[in-house]
UniProtKB/TrEMBL annotation:
Pfam families: AMMECR1 (PF01871). SUPFAM superfamilies: AMMECR1-like (SSF143447). NCBIfam families: TIGR00296 family protein. Residues 1-194 form the AMMECR1 domain. This is AMMECR1 domain-containing protein. InterPro entries: AMMECR1, AMMECR1_dom_sf, AMMECR1_domain, AMMECR1_N. Transmembrane segments: none annotated. PANTHER family: AMME SYNDROME CANDIDATE GENE 1 PROTEIN, AMMECR1 HOMOLOG. The gene is LOC100802057.
Length: 211
């Protein structure tokens, strides 16, 4: 099994920096493989807790090189919950790569463990008679301090359902649980890594667009 590692996060930073500089990112220093994956960007301000700035990925297996390149940019620039990350935010960012593993069908909506499992829910919207789905990575519920039910209810809202959340609705949820490996790195650690491995620090062009 492939695990998330430092080189994968470095490639995400390389990709975002290359976007701002209108250049190509250096070739990644990890082997090609197929995996479901997510890229998460957070912003650290004044030494406080990191705040989410973007998180998008795929529950289907993608090639790691193309997948990380695509989702590093998509999560940074096109997460509809947030404005696009600006080039001048780079020094405040931390990046996490998550590779998803061990998909299992759960017996009911509470059949999972906080911190251990990520969850995918699917259910039928009783108002619009459409199928809805959404996911949270394994660390989300613990980071938010949620109970299992609070996490489920938040995920129902994330899926786009705005009606009343009842026990009947929760009971009809089809839940898939999964696990993940992840690696997190702050921009300052990325700079140190690049200096050590490539002999010079990464440079943000003065002409970099702010988008």
């Amino acid at each position: 099994m492939v695990s998330a590692n430092k080189e994968m996060v470095v490639y995400c930073f390389d990709t975002l920096l290359a976007h701002y500089n209108s250049t190509e990112a250096p070739s990644p220093a990890f082997d090609q493989a197929q995996h479901p994956l997510f890229v998460t960007w957070k912003k650290v301000v004044n030494g406080g807790d990191p705040r989410l700035r973007g998180c998008i990925g795929t529950l289907e297996a993608r090639s790691l090189i193309n997948g990380l390149k695509d989702y590093a940019l998509t999560s940074a620039l096109r997460d509809r919950r947030f404005p696009p990350i600006q080039a001048n935010e780079l020094p405040l960012l931390e990046c996490t790569v998550s590779l998803l593993t061990d998909y299992e069908a759960a017996n009911h909506y509470l059949d999972w463990e906080i911190e251990k499992h990520g969850i995918i829910i699917e259910f039928s919207d009783p108002v619009y008679n459409t199928r809805r789905s959404a996911t949270y990575l394994p660390e989300v519920a613990a980071n938010e301090g949620w109970t299992k039910t609070e996490a489920i209810d938040s995920l129902i809202r994330k899926a786009g359902y705005n009606g009343p959340i009842t026990d009947e609705l929760r009971m009809q949820i089809q839940l898939t649980r999964y696990q993940s490996t992840l690696f997190t790195m702050h921009y300052s650690e990325y700079v140190s890594y690049v200096k050590e491995r490539r002999g010079e620090a990464p440079i943000l062009s003065a002409k970099s667009p702010n988008y």
